[in-house]
Every structure is written in structure tokens, then in C-alpha cells.
Design goal:
Length: 487
């Protein structure tokens, strides 16, 4: 008998009706958090205490090898806890798309449960976790195209517009599905193409399919009194969060440590492998997979120089630049992960009525990690598994109150999608909030100052802060994946 048998309570209704039906609890723990917050450590601690097994949801850790680049726990740090979906694909393989991750992870969850153990999903790749949790609500807010790559090629052969310029594709989309066309940024070729593909493949508008899914889901929730029943079982979510400046400093130190531990050796391994494949005449799509991993691209100029001009006096400089670039890419990635959480995941959790199961644990102070993250995580998990009432998430710490309350308030605001173009920067923004962020950004103000100096634009043409403050704010997040996005 697994440990879960200790946590199988009788349902109230079963007691009242006098029947001895017992509902087995199917708990699932999911750990969100940016890189450097100690997610993997918490997962191992929970697994050792509650008989768990861990499922990796970090796209880069899906790759075999490269323990330093991908920040994998060592065997010793795994402390005998089974880890799944870790090192599952070869270096040259394409990364898993969301649907594939969801399929594999769901299968793994049920296998772990079959062994009477507790599944713990821990991840850095936000859209993997979101994909797993929010079924039917694919990351881009548009339905996925069935059949994957081969289907795509077939479609493109039939509809040459799919390989045309973003402008041409957008014009076509505006014709067939204006709602979707309005959603996407004119430069976002990938999303525009997907909307078109869906139209060509199904003969239906992506916007209609999405609207249908939404209303189905809403009526499903309305008809269920226990809205918290998720297809995956009963869910407890942790969000490991660290104050940005503290985290940045920690990440910088980690990169230094990675370099000491042989980051460059691993990077060279990836680099030589890439060279080999190119030399063999293979085409390599470098826009995704391991080629996009932080720590590889940043050292490429150095590695190229090292192989081509090994005696060059500039080598050290290139190496230092690689280290600095890796640091800044890591910081940006952490920022992107937090932004995804606050802009996307939290509103999805709200829609799914799961928000009160999300616990932010403050990992800012490493000295207090045990008290703030470990002890609180362990106690919450105990209460959750014992079906005791859980405390309010905002009461867990000052940080939890501050961050959660602020985020929820933002995502509760009315959506006011709007499309505005900054003529000075030639940039199109899709929501009021992003517009506001843009016109108050340092970059915009700098461009404006420079333009004013050259007297290229009259003062009245520049959106002022006062004007911005008077405009209503909306919270529709644009998918602003920076270039350091892992996939
Ligand atoms: Zn601007």
C-alpha cells in the first residue's frame, strides 16, 4: 500500500447517503518559478518526505547531457528520487512542442500514481506547465494545428501564401479571420501563419474555434459546483519567487560558478557537434532547441575565434564578453519567466478557479530558504494531502501578499485591447497597458529626446506622461518573448 492510502478520506456525501464509497485522492504538485529560485531542491525535499517522483518541465533539461548548461541536479542532489523526462532527447533533436510535453507528462503522472506515489512537476518552461494545466487553452490563445510538421509542409505546398512575407500573410488573415488578424503584431509571422494554417486546414476561423472552446469551458464550470476538479486531479501549486535585484546577483554568481565547473567545455561540445552537422551538409534550424540555450550562443564568437585564430590576442576579451552576455541573458530569462507568470499563468489560474491553490514562497534570502521555502512548502503539502483547510495564499509572507495581490488586481482589470503605433519608434502595441509601458520606457524617451534634438518631430506629436496617465489601462498580455526564449 502506498502512502496515499493514509490520505483517503470519506466524502461527506458518501457518509450522508450511507454508502461506503471511497473517493481516492489524486493529488498533483506543480512547482513554478524562475531559474535560480531553488525549484528543483524543493521538489526533491517534497519527494523525499511524501513519497514522490519528479517530472521535469524544463525544455532544456529534456536534452541528454550538458549538465552545466542546462543546470541539471547531479545524481547526488537527486537523492535517489526518480526524475522523469530528464535527458529524454538527443542533442540534435527538435524540442518537444507543448502538446507533446502534455502527452508525455500526463502519461507519467498516471504511471507515478499507479505506483501509489505522488507526482511532482517542476519546471522552468512556463508554456509547458501552462499547456499541461490549461487544456484547450493553447498558449497563443489559438487552437493548435493537428498533425505537426508534416501537415504544415503539406499545407504550405497547397497555400503558397504561408511562405510569403508577414505583411502578405496578415493581409490574407485580415480577409479570412479579421478577429485573429487584430490580435497579432504585424511582425509576428509565426502567429499570423498559425492562424492562417488553422483556417486552411479546418476551413474554420481560429477565432471561432477558440470562442467555442471558451464557451464550452465556461458552461462546464457553471454546471459544476466543485469548480476545482481538474482533469489532472487535485492540484497544489507553488511559485518560487525572489526579489529581482537579489536574484540577479545570485544568477551572476551562478554563471561564474558554471564557468569554473566547465561551462566552456560543454559549449565547445555543442559547437563542434553543430560544425560537424553543417560540414556534413545537413540543414540545422538554429532558431530552436539546444542552439538557443543560454550559454551556447553567447560563447559562439569566442569558440569560432578560438578555432580559427587560436593565437589572436583578442581571445580573452571575447571570452569575457561571452561570460557577460551569458549573465545578462540569464537575468533576462528570469525576468521573462516572472512576467509570464504574472501576465499569463495567473489569469489562467483565475479562469480555472485554481488561483487559491497557488502559493508564492519567498526565495529572496538564501539564509532563510529553509524557513521561507522548505518549511512552508512541506507544511502546505501536508495540509493539502490530508485535505485540511489551506491558509490564504496572501498570508504566507509579506512578499506573497505584495506580489499576488498586485498581480491579481492587474489581471482583474477590464480588457481594453487597442492597437496603437508609436510613430517615433515605428512600433505597434496591441494593448493599452503595453502602450503605456512603451511611452514611458527609457528606450522610447531616449529616441524622442534624440529626435527632438534634431528637431525632427514637433513636441505635440509625442505622447506625454500626462496623456498616458489619463488613458484607461488594460491587461491583455502580448506574448513578448525575448530572443533569449529557450525554444
Ligand atoms: Zn516610441
Amino acid at each position: 500500500m502506498g502512502f496515499l492510502s493514509r490520505f483517503v478520506p470519506l466524502l461527506g456525501s458518501a457518509l450522508r447517503s450511507g454508502r461506503a464509497t471511497v473517493k481516492r485522492m489524486t493529488p498533483l504538485i506543480i512547482i513554478y518559478g524562475s531559474t535560480g529560485t531553488g525549484k528543483s531542491d524543493l521538489a526533491v525535499e517534497l519527494a523525499t518526505r511524501y513519497n514522490g517522483e519528479i517530472i521535469n518541465a524544463d525544455a532544456m533539461q529534456l536534452y541528454k547531457g550538458l549538465p552545466i548548461i542546462t543546470n541539471k541536479l547531479t545524481t547526488q542532489e537527486q537523492r535517489g528520487v526518480p526524475h522523469h523526462l530528464l535527458g529524454s532527447i538527443e542533442l540534435g533533436e527538435d524540442p518537444w512542442v507543448v502538446t507533446q510535453f502534455k502527452k508525455e507528462a500526463t502519461k507519467m503522472i498516471s504511471e507515478i500514481r499507479g505506483r501509489g506515489k505522488l507526482p511532482i512537476v517542476v519546471g522552468g518552461t512556463s508554456y509547458y506547465l501552462d499547456g499541461l494545466l490549461f487544456e484547450g487553452r493553447v498558449v497563443d490563445n489559438q487552437p493548435a494545428l493537428e498533425g505537426g510538421a508534416s501537415n504544415r509542409d503539406e499545407l504550405a505546398a497547397k497555400h503558397p501564401i504561408l511562405t510569403d512575407t508577414p505583411e502578405a500573410m496578415l493581409a490574407k488573415l485580415r480577409e479570412v479571420d479579421p478577429v485573429m488578424a487584430d490580435k497579432w503584431h504585424p511582425n509576428d509571422a509565426r502567429k499570423i501563419r498559425t492562424s492562417l494554417e488553422i483556417y486552411f486546414a479546418t476551413g474554420r476561423r481560429a477565432s471561432d474555434i477558440y470562442a467555442e472552446q471558451r464557451s464550452k469551458k465556461e458552461s462546464k464550470w457553471a454546471s459544476e459546483s466543485r469548480a476545482r476538479d481538474h482533469d489532472l486531479g487535485e492540484i497544489l501549486l507553488f511559485w518560487l519567487y525572489a526579489q529581482r535585484e537579489v536574484l540577479n546577483e545570485r544568477l551572476d554568481k551562478r554563471v561564474d560558478r558554471m564557468v569554473q565547473n566547465g561551462l566552456l567545455r560543454e559549449t565547445a561540445e555543442v559547437y563542434d557537434y553543430l560544425r560537424q552537422r553543417l560540414a556534413a551538409g545537413e540543414t540545422v534550424d538554429r532558431s530552436k532547441g539546444i542552439w538557443q540555450s543560454i550559454g551556447f550562443r553567447q560563447f559562439e564568437p569566442y569558440l569560432t575565434a578560438e578555432r580559427e585564430t587560436p593565437d589572436s590576442p583578442g581571445l580573452d576579451k571575447l571570452k569575457l564578453a561571452g561570460i557577460e552576455d551569458t549573465k545578462s541573458a540569464t537575468r533576462q530569462y528570469a525576468k521573462y519567466q516572472v512576467r509570464w507568470m504574472t501576465m499569463k499563468t495567473i489569469s489562467s489560474l483565475q479562469e480555472e478557479k485554481l488561483l487559491d491553490r497557488l502559493y508564492l514562497l519567498d526565495s529572496s534570502d538564501i539564509q532563510r530558504w529553509n524557513a521561507e521555502v522548505l518549511d512552508k512548502g512541506v507544511e502546505l503539502t501536508r495540509q493539502f494531502l490530508a485535505r485540511e483547510p489551506l491558509p490564504p495564499a496572501t498570508g504566507m509572507s509579506e512578499m506573497a501578499r505584495e506580489v499576488l495581490a498586485g498581480t491579481v488586481e492587474r489581471s482583474n482589470r477590464q480588457d481594453t485591447p487597442c492597437r496603437k503605433t508609436c510613430e517615433v519608434c515605428k512600433k505597434t502595441l496591441l494593448t493599452e497597458e503595453l502602450w503605456q509601458a512603451h511611452v514611458t520606457s527609457r528606450k522610447h524617451l531616449k529616441v524622442v529626446r534624440a529626435a527632438k534634438k534634431r528637431q525632427l518631430i514637433p513636441a505635440h506629436a509625442v505622447p506625454s506622461r500626462a496623456l498616458v496617465a489619463a488613458t484607461p489601462v488594460c491587461a491583455v498580455p502580448e506574448d513578448t518573448a525575448p530572443t533569449i526564449n529557450h525554444l
